[in-house]
Structures are given as C-alpha cells and as structure tokens.
Amino acid sequence: MGVDLGTQGVRALAVTADGRVLGRGSAGLTGHREGNRHQQLPADWWSAVGTAVRRTLAADGTLSVRVRGLSVCSTSGTVLLTSPDGAPVGPALMYDDGRAEAEAGDAQEAGAALWDELGLRIQPSWALAKLVWLARHADQWSGGPRSGIDGSRVCHQADYVVGRLAGHPVATDSSHALKTGYDLHRAAWPTHVHDRLGLDGLRFPDVVPPGTVLGTVCRDAAAHTGLTEGTPIVAGMTDGCAAQLGSGAWGVGQWNSVLGTTLVLKGVTATPLRDPAGVLYNHRSPDGHWLPGGASSVGAGALTKAFPGADLARLDRLAVTREPARAIAYPLVAAGERFPFLAPDAEAFMLGSAPEDDADRHAALLQGVALVERLCLAYIRLLGAPVDAAVTFTGGATRSPYWNQLRADILGRPAIVPEQTDPALGMAVLAAHGIARARAADGVAVPLASTSRGMVRTGAVLDPRPDVTRRFAEPFAALVGELERRGWLPRTTADYAREHG
User: Fold this and answer.
1) Hey, what domains does the chain have and what are their CATH numbers?
2) pTM over 0.90
3) Rg (CA), the chain
4) Most buried pick, 39, 209, 241, 449, via CB within 10 A?
5) What is the pLDDT of residue 141?
6) In what residue span(s) does the Carbohydrate kinase FGGY N-terminal domain sit (predicted)?
7) How far is the C-alpha of 170 from the C-alpha of 7, rounded, in Å?
C-alpha cells in the first residue's frame, strides 16, 4: 500500500505485485494561506490518513490482513517541530510557504562551501530556511519564547504520519531530509551549519535510506486506519520521487514529469547532476542511482484558481480550437519561481491579446504549463543530462487526455502515461522493494526492477503531432524572451532554449 500526502488531500492505493489495484481511497485537506504563507495542521493529516486508508480497505473486506507493507510520501520541504514524543508544537509550514526569504539567504551563506560542493542553493521554500524562521520567530507561532522550542524535534510531513502509524517517533528518510540540508554524499547532518544558524537547540532525527523498514503499525493506528496491527512500515520518499518510482522510469536517461498542483521533473542519472545555479538538486534512488530534478511553481493549480468548480473536461473540448491561444500564459500557482530558474519575485503574466473567453483563457493556461515544461527539459539538457527516452507523465493532471497529448505536442517528443499515475503507486512500489530487501541475505543487492516491475502498467503512448509542435515554436520563443527580459531567466539558459529547446 502507498499513501500520498498531497496539498489538497491524502490518497491511498493498494496494489498487487502484478499491478492490479485492489482498493483506493482519498480524503480532502485544507490549509491556511495568507500572502506567501501556507500552513496546515498535522492533526488534519492524521485524520485524513485514517479516512483514506479505511476507504481503500473497504473495497475488500479481507484486504487489511493482506497488506504486506506500506510506505508514505509527502510534499518536499514541508516541516514542523514536535515535542520529543512526537506531539506538534505548532502548525506545519508547507512546501510552498515563502516567508523564509531572508533566512534562506542566511542559510546559504552559513553553509556556502558545503552547498557549493553539493551543488545546492537553499531556497525560501526549503525546510532548512523555514527551521531558521521558526527558531527566530518562536514567539509568533508557538505562544512562547525561543527557549520554549529548544529540545523540539525536527519533523517532516511524512515523518509525523509514520510516527503516528508506528506509535512513536521514527527516523526520517534521506529523500525528505534533503531540503533540510542533509548531506547525501557523507550521509550526515551538517551540524556545523546548524550551529551557525542557531539551530543547535533542535533535535534532528536519525536518517535512513528510502526502503528501510522503520517499524510496524501499532494498536492505536490499526484502530484508526483499519490496517492490521504489525503491518510493516517502509521509509518513503518525497512526492516527486514517489511519482518517479510509480512511473516505471527507473533507467538512466529516463525522465518523469509530474503535473499536479505544481510541476516537478525528475530523471535518473548514474552520477549526481551538478547545477551551478542550484535550482536542480539530486535525490538518491533506492537502487543506487541518482534522481536529479526540480520543482516549478507553474501547474494545474492555476486552473483551479482561474476556474473554481468549472467543468474542465468541457473547457478541454473547447480548447482544441485554440492552438495556440490568443495569449501566452506564464501560469504560476503562487508568487515566486523555483525551477528552471530561481526568481522569488516572479509573478504570473499573460502576453499578447487578452483571452476572449473562458475557453481561450483555459487554452492559454494549458499551453503555458507545457511551454514551461519544455523550458525545464531544455535546461536539463543544458546541464548535460541524457534525455533520450520518451518522457513519462504522472500526477493528477494526467486525468485530462487532451492535456496529455498537447504536452507531448509542445514538447515535440513521445510521452508515456502509466495506467496508474498517482504518487501513491510509487510508495506501493517502494514498500514492495523494501520488504524484499529486508528479506534478502545481507550484502545481496536487490534491483528495483526485480521486485516491482510488474506493478507499473503502461496506459497510453502518445506521439507528438509535428504540425502542432511547429505551431508552438513562436509562442515558446516569445515566453522565453519575456522571462529573460524581466530578469528572471539567465541569458545562457534563454539562448540555449531558443536554439535547442
């Protein structure tokens, strides 16, 4: 079973070794947004997990006793502080919370030599910057002075839920720990950086590789979720990595594009992919490869904001006649861009003529996301990464067949859409891998494909339509030029995108 803690809800999926879905369930989440701040309550996550898992198990009365293991993914960079026993001492700062801009600069400076070595750039959305903000502003959110949070435990979103499942705080995985500053190369926390930032009073968790068995479902969690007490819990990964595992794109040179509220691109390389700008960062795959990738702030969330409650399938049908639309959109979901360039002051805009109706506006947003996706792939190639195979599409936006084809057209390359595109599938894959690895003899390598290949089924293969690809060459060049003119997109990237994108 895989459990995905998303922005707007929790999703759970139970799947067999040959990819048959036995059950699925979901439950909604809400948060509090104010300007560039975004918070959620950890108690709401736990409540939604109980509902989503119970709905998954309800598909089959005997399913709970047949779950051989489960794993949990969550949004990357979401962080909170808890007491030593795991109780939250305040709300969680979500992955797209941008309040820690000054703290990100301080964190970058405090660890400049290390971040340069690792090819990282600390961004306001990263958990490390948020921890500095929490430490400096304890009186604003915890109801007490800074001394009141000393001894608090650093906790990522998935850590909290897994701790509730196990009945006690657990180790975090190296994937969720990355944006908290964890050094994947040395497998250690950079304590000297933490000390310089005034974080020495906080307790950072132990870190294990994704796929490590962390414990089992406790009695209270069994009662809350319907799972069988004693079910193994396997250390997970961030949602972008989960989508990568669920896509089946596990070989070097393969890339997966996850389109949900925002856009995440992640691929597989034999060695870490170095990015001088630090907007692309490298996770570690459970089977030893590296997973470079980045997260843009454009995405399907722009549709939700523009057309709340609308029939998007109807708008898709109307958008077919608007290729290209009158306007060229840069459809940021929230202020600030993270990939393929870093621009905290970036904001959404439209070029050209104003949309003449909802269909035209909808078409412009769909096309705008795909144009940014094309720019992201150009940046990845600029860094020297192989991008040879068809791109795999996952995420909630793949529910739109029209948008899938449009994205393949604008990218000008084939795309594969798996039968199941939910990141929860990736966590089911990781759970299967982790259980198999735990049962293997010491020192025996267990390739991901050998344990989980049958769990990922291909749903559709999309070939780009050359005539449509040609139609979007001019809008792509116009968008690249405007991003450069505004000072957000570096000239080197813009020049490469215009020539090779």
Assistant:
1) 2-236 (3.30.420.40), 241-421+460-496 (3.30.420.40)
2) no
3) 22
4) 241
5) 66
6) 2-246
7) 23
pLDDT, residue 208, reads 97
* CB-CB contact of 102 with 170 (8 Å): no
Give 236's contacts (C-beta < 8 A, 6+ positions apart): 71, 72, 73, 74, 158, 162, 173, 175, 176, 210, 242, 427, 430
Q: What is the pLDDT of residue 145?
A: 55
Per-residue CA distances from 470 to 7, 12, 298, 476, 497 (Å): 35, 40, 23, 10, 15
Please state the φ and ψ torsions of residue 261, each to the nearest 5 degrees. -55, -40
400 pLDDT more than 80 = yes
Buried b (16+ CB within 10 A) or exposed e, 229-246: eebbbbbbbbbbbbbbbb
In this prediction, what percent of the chain has a pLDDT beyond 70? 98
pLDDT digit string, tens, across residues 153-172: 999 999 999 999 999 999 99
Which pLDDT value is given to residue 334? 87
- Strand bridging mode 92-93 / 37-40: antiparallel
Q: How confident is the model over 346-362, as a mean pLDDT?
A: 95
CB 217 within 8 A of CB 229: yes
The structure tokens listed for 210 are 């994704």
Residue 305 to residue 164: CA distance in whole angstroms: 33
pLDDT of residue 142: 61
Residues in the chain: 501
The residue written with tokens 């505004």 in the block is: 486
Beta bridge partners of 261: none
The pLDDT of residue 174: 96
DSSP 338-392: -SSS-BTT---EEEESPPSSHHHHHHHHHHHHHHHHHHHHHHHHHTT----SPEE
Backbone φ and ψ for 451, nearest 5 degrees, come out as -100, -20
The secondary structure of 71-138, three-state, reads EEEECCCCEEEECCCCCECCCEECCCCCCCHHHHHHHHHHCHHHHHHHCCCCCCCCHHHHHHHHHHCH
Q: Which of 273, 246, 252, 254 is nearest to 414 (CA)?
A: 254
**Count of alpha carbons within 13 Å of 15, Cβ hemisphere only?**
30
Q: So what's the pLDDT on residue 148?
A: 62
